[in-house]
Amino acid sequence: MMFLLLALFVAGAYGCGLPTYPPIVTRVVGGEDVREHSWPWQVSLQYQSGSSFYHTCGGTLISNQWVLTAAHCISNRSYRVYLGKHNLKDNNEAGSIAISPSKIIVHENWDSYRIRNDIALIKLSTPVKYSDAIMAACLPNSGDILPNGAPCYVTGWGRLWTGGPIADILQQALLPVVGHSTCTKPDWWGTLVTDSMVCAGGDGQLASCNGDSGGPLNCQNPDGSWDVHGVVSFGSSMGCLHPLDQQCDDQKLRCAMDCITFGSGT
Question: Which parts of the chain are coiled coil (predicted)?
Fold first, then answer.
């Protein structure tokens, strides 16, 4: 997994993490519709049921042929990866494309009981051509640790409220990083948090919900580019509209942010 993540990124005509249409980000807490194609590395992982496909998780394009998602999103199903999507209900969106996987690699130490190593890689059957709508995210340098309060954003089409429908339009939400010393307190995640994890959210903030699993935690660099510091894994068991104590497992590379999904993520 480590050498794959470090070696697979291939920059094309478009630089990583620099959307043609930069996201309009605010300090507003809670989900909001995104600017179209402002998070061009966001993908929709969809499973097949009968002759139709349905959104189940998010994911992040990290090269022209590899997608990062959460291990708990993967089961014994047939999948496709939809790239360049904005509105899930629009089957004729310009610039979007659905590609089937040629290989899915779930982390060999994925532990569903303790929720450890919740990360998977999907190899697309054909490389994608970068465009305004489809672009790879940047990955942070190994060992980078975000400061407490760093203003990061989660994106996805997750449920709009506990038990509610998934969003049609891609959503974004501010989710500040929470320092390790706070996240390991007994009233947060305590001993469940390891040194290889990063937390985000808390303080009663509305964030993401089922269906956001596997999606990115986007954090901006001083030069304006965006790094993806992890993938959505899990959060508070109290529901999508309750205080968020989110735990993010970064897979020792700080590129797998276990966060934000409540329950199974399906």
Answer: none
